[in-house]
Amino acid sequence: MTMTSNGSDPIVRIRGLRKSFGDLEVLKGVDMDVQKGEVVVILGPSGSGKSTLLRCVNRLEAPTGGEIWLEDIQVNDPHTNINKVRERIGMVFQSFNLFPHLTAKGNVMLALRKVLKRSKEEAEKIAIEQLERVGLSDRVDYFPAQLSGGQQQRVAIARALSMDPHVMLFDEVTSALDPELVRGVLDVMKELARGGMTMLVVTHEMGFAREVASRAVFMDDGVIVEEGTPSEVFDHPQSDRTKDFLGHIK
Amino acid sequence: MNQKVRYATGYTALAITCLSLATLLLTMVGPARLLYEDPPRRGTTEPLNAIYLISPTKDVITVGKRQVDLVPQNAVLEDNLAVTLTRTPTGSGLGKGDWVVAAEEASPTPVLLNGARPTGDESLQDNDVLTIGGVEITYTAGRKGIVGALDWWESGKVSHLFASPQVISEAFPVLLAAYPISLIAVFVSFLLAIPGGLALAFMKMAKSRWFRFPATAYVDFVRGTPIFLQILLVFFGLPLMPPWQLLVSTFPAINNAGLFGVSNSMWLRAFVVLSFNSAAYMAEIFRAGIQSINKGQMEAARSLGMSTAAAMAFVIIPQTVRRILPTMMSEFILLFKDTSLFAAVGLMEIVMRAREVASTTLNVSAYLLAAVFYLVITIPLGRIVQQMENRLAASEGGGTATFEKSTEDNIEKVAKIKQGLAEPTMDGM
Fold it and tell me: Which residues contact A77 (CB under 8 A, 6 or more apart)?
């Protein structure tokens, strides 16, 4: 199978993706297309491979089979300069992963300076803009340890956005947060979705999924079991596994 | 009882104690002393000009076959006795080199007491001068006040042997002159060990076994053998190696005397052994430090498009440095103390000098002084380590910080790792 690309192609294209950790096969052939501006919510029980799928997209995990394309670049081609691909993909983690030795501003500035080689002034300007965008203009000089979980996660989002990514990956970004802090983060993500950002979101936040997602994907046991609009998947699930899962989390 | 009264009582008690101690000190009368110039030592021609303090409680004075106690002022020297000043058998350890006044009959040298021939029962008075075998001895009754207290301290058997002010003041300039040698040895070696340790740490973490194996073997060897053995190996082994001989023939200046009277060759070998040793321990500190940084940090940096090297340089290493700084300083303290082992190979550092002084004075006070020279570095440094740990624990919010343990634990831990008793783990440091 040869893949060609042109401007109207999906921004992310996944074909026959497989990933094994030793003897354990976590992804057993996943196909998925993400169009520009789409917000795809990926659901599924733990161990279903949804986080691994996300981590394969920017090759934090190296796929063991299949193909992943970002626009016109094959992500899992060993000749691809993965750092160039990652500049175009923003990722936000469950555990924030802010750099604790840098301030909020410093966290955002680091990649701008060291990867995009922006001047210090320019990087600082972008950092402050992005932190304003996530509602943290009064926290730019705080260190991560001085911020709440929700604020840290918003800094992490600002950090990813500062690179001007084409796609954003969100890996259970609200799971580690206290319930009262979840909303602030979700609000930022909603704002982002409304602005036309292409997003792949692994989450258990059903309300968010219903409100924002253009498509919901239900995964189980390393394969996509069901996909469709949020209302199709949530209100009229076809597969028993989907029904079972939705019954559990409601 | 309220606070004010308690304070008042406390301070009054303290004042009374201080006052009575001061009174005691100022009114105290020291022991009687015999002062004379040290006679020439065997094998040397020039006399030492130091005044030797004979302690009546310590020094044995014999006249003829009789032992004479000088304190009760009944040292009766009879006519026609030749008196010589000798030491009891030397070489039999500390405390055996007592001075002995031995008398023989039919003296060719007259024995003078206060310039006059002693009569039968004349006793010693203050400032009497005895001439014994050509050596003048002045007898002084006890001095008063602080000097008397010092004399008293000096004449005590234990206090004299372990903390003689006279020996200490004599040893001070000698040890001070050797101090830079220990300091330079540890500073230079420590700085050299940092890149070495970093290289070893990355080799140990490499995927390829061709990097991992030599680094692991090296670290195992260094950590598994005593540093004393390594010093002997390097000091006596290195000069036997062809590359060293080539080095010496290329730069003959290596055998010249270098800084502080230590030959360049000695310096070089000292740096080699200390830095090579420390690099192995640092490799473990660095490796544990780097691996203690959450994997998510590397992932976050990489997912922003940073290369592994950039992520290491800007994200992982800066965090590692903060974490391992206390452990590094503990390693510095240990390394500083290890410089004392150079005494065994003739590098004239503090302990070697202290040993020299101790063996000529038959007194261990110089060792005590050497201890002070170490402590003035190690104690403040230990406190700094502790403060850094506290600050680190606070700044990391307790969640990821695992450095709440005290410096003592920390140093102990590194020491145990040195002895191969413990595995280096960041959470224990």
Answer: none
